[in-house]
Amino acid sequence: MKASRLFGFVIGLLVTVQTSHGMRTSRIGPDSANPHPTTEQQDWPKGLVELVWRESRVYSVWVNGNENFYFKADAKEINELIRLFSQARMRDHELIIKTGKPKVKSFKSDEFEYNVNLHIIAGIAMHMTRRADEPRTHEPPLTIYVDPDGDHAWLKTIHLPANIILNSAIENLPLKGKAVRPERMFRHAEVQFEDGTPAADLENGVSTRVTFWETGEPAGIDLGHIGNKGYFRAPFSDREIAELEAGASWLTLTVGNWSTKAKPEHPRLAASNLALDESETKVIQLARPGFYHGRILFEDGTPPILDPIPWPGAKIQINFPYTNGGAPDPAGYFKVYFTDEQFEKLKDEKTRRNIYIPSYERRGSSRALFAFPAAKLSKSKQDAGVVKIPKPAPKPAQK
Fold first, then answer.
1. Residues 74 and 55: beta-carbon distance below 8 Å
2. Are strands 333-336 and 249-256 parallel, antiparallel or unpaired?
3. Is 152 left (phi over 0), alpha (psi -120 to 50) or beta?
4. CA-CA distance, 349 to 344, in Å (whole number)?
5. Which DSSP string do the residues of 312-342 spell out, in sequence order?
């Protein structure tokens, strides 16, 4: 995830949480005890937010995409949490049962007892996890803790839906799961744009997402993105491959920015294009998306190149909603990607300051001081609109 996307996501998240510490955010209690409701994130499994909304939630914390929700629930509520968990759109629904009386500590060292935990891996954490060698889906597990000193009779009232994969550390548990995690192996694909470049232009906010769909299911399952070298891998079982070949399920390739939604009618990644060995992949080609172009210049007509440079790597940056930001090229031009729908919506929104100027006083810091209206963007570089800004003046050295 690029820094500009992460920055925008974190800033948006910080305004909705009770407590925040740098890249960590937390909430105490359920949504009814907080001014803003928890919203479903694009990289969460569809439907999982309904579990998060339950009143039995006592605490939640987010750290770089590692999201944990803690609940204090009775047997009736645990059944409801399991039911909602089973209905979330995932390939694996793993229920873990352990013994213990756990507590979670807040940033202010307040402690909260809980007996149910939902762990979601998303964002940066999911990107790093998927790079591991283990062929797992890494979908959120639900963990229930049983008091080792308490009465366990309530366990007999727990109902397990057929798709629950039970993983228990308790002997003679009066619960039996019907589902089993299938054995999977990595399958590889190579996807390029028609010009032979990888189907991932992260520098300009373009990526290609792979989504898994099944007949009769309106929501897809996110399997990740094409890498910056054009390669993709995801774990599949033999049965899943057979269903892909039979057409009972399918994979799509969605080209767009980070907020472009995958649709079942998008271009497909055929099962025949999935190889067990990366060296045996067959190249799949997609149409390269068109960009919107703009240009930034200093008021004297020169390109926006900082001289002297305030700190190593410092550049003037441009940022827009829906997509990653970037730096103008040596001639002042920049390009960004939007869907036509996103662009029309952006033109109707209030123009906000989105040209970031590096600080000469504070290393690594930049401020949004000027605005580039979306209406000035053009699909043709030669027709790109121009915004002129004052040339930053270095602060005189202290005597």
1. no
2. unpaired
3. alpha
4. 9
5. TT---EE--TTS--B---TTSEEEE---HHH
For residue 241, the one-letter residue type is I
d(CA 373, CA 380): 16
Q: Quick one: pLDDT at residue 294?
A: 96
Q: DSSP character for 391?
A: P
- Residue environment code for 326-358, b if the CB has 16+ CB neighbours within 10 A, otherwise e: bebeeebbbbbbbbeebbeebeeeeeeebbbbb
Q: Please give the torsion angle defined by the CA atoms of residues 309, 311, 313 and 316, in that order, rounded to the nearest 10 degrees.
A: -60
HSE, side-chain direction, 13 A CA sphere, residue 313:
5
Phi and psi torsions of 285, nearest 5°: -115, 140
CA distance to 28, 61, 62, 339, 355, per residue, from 13 (Å): 15, 12, 10, 24, 22
DSSP state at residue 118 = E
**How many C-beta neighbours within 10 Å does residue 242 have?**
13
For the sheet containing 317-318, what is the strand order? 317-318, 355-358, 366-370
Long-range contacts of the stretch 357-360 (C-beta < 8 A, 24+): 357/316, 357/389, 357/392, 358/306, 358/310, 358/311, 358/314, 358/315, 358/316, 358/392, 359/310, 360/310, 360/392, 360/394, 360/395
Local mean pLDDT, 10-residue blocks, the chain (399 residues): 36 34 77 88 92 96 91 97 98 96 92 97 84 89 93 90 94 88 97 94 87 96 94 97 97 92 96 95 93 96 94 93 86 92 92 95 93 96 97 68
Residue 174 contacts residue 157 (beta carbons within 8 Å): no
- The rounded distance, in Å, linking the Cα atoms of 267 and 105 is 46
Report the 10 Å Cβ neighbour count for 124.
16
> What's the CA gap between 399 and 388, in Å, rounded?
33
Query: The whole model's pTM is what?
Result: 0.83
The answer, yes or no, to whether the previous bond of 308 is cis (omega within 30 of 0) is yes
